[in-house]
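If you are new to this repository, start here. Below is one unmodified record pulled from the training split, so you can see the exact layout before writing a loader.
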Amino acid sequence: MNLPNILTMVRMVLVFVFIKLFLADSLASMIAACFVFAAAAITDYLDGYIAKKYDLITDFGKIMDPIADKFLMLAAFYLFAKFGLIPMWMFIVIAVREVGITVMRLIALKRKEVLAAENLGKMKTVSQIVVISVILIYVVLKKFNPTWRQDTGGIIGLWIPVINLLMYISVGLTVISGAQFLHNLKKD
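And here is the target side for that same chain:
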């Protein structure tokens, strides 16, 4: 097993750690969840970079890397939806797109075809990482000061509108990049 594949497996383990920490629902566990999510997101970048730079691309990596990526994102969005931080419909839209595209990529891999991520898909991933990070910071701040109210105005009052805006951007990019992927797939 090479380093990129090890990083992919570490990311899978980190997803379970992230879920456990988030569900523990304390200030310390939420801070730890932020760091675990950041570490998992960094492994996402590193495994791809190292695999390409040092020609360490494997069939295992081609299959498991996108699964680990989607597992991380979907776990975070599901938890956010479950606890009312985002609407459930947003999670469902993201989940349907992510699972559908991943299944299509895996089917193509069985036929020895590689369906590479496109620029819009990469922008979608970055938007998802950003909005998840912002929501996690918001949750930590709320845990730090439970009496903090959204309706007090100023910077405090901006968190929910900013999160909503980022979520709409992320969901929009999710839908548009999925449609672009399907359109480009039909052209081939």
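Two things worth knowing about this chain: The chain has a mean pLDDT of 90. The two ends are 33 Å apart (CA to CA).
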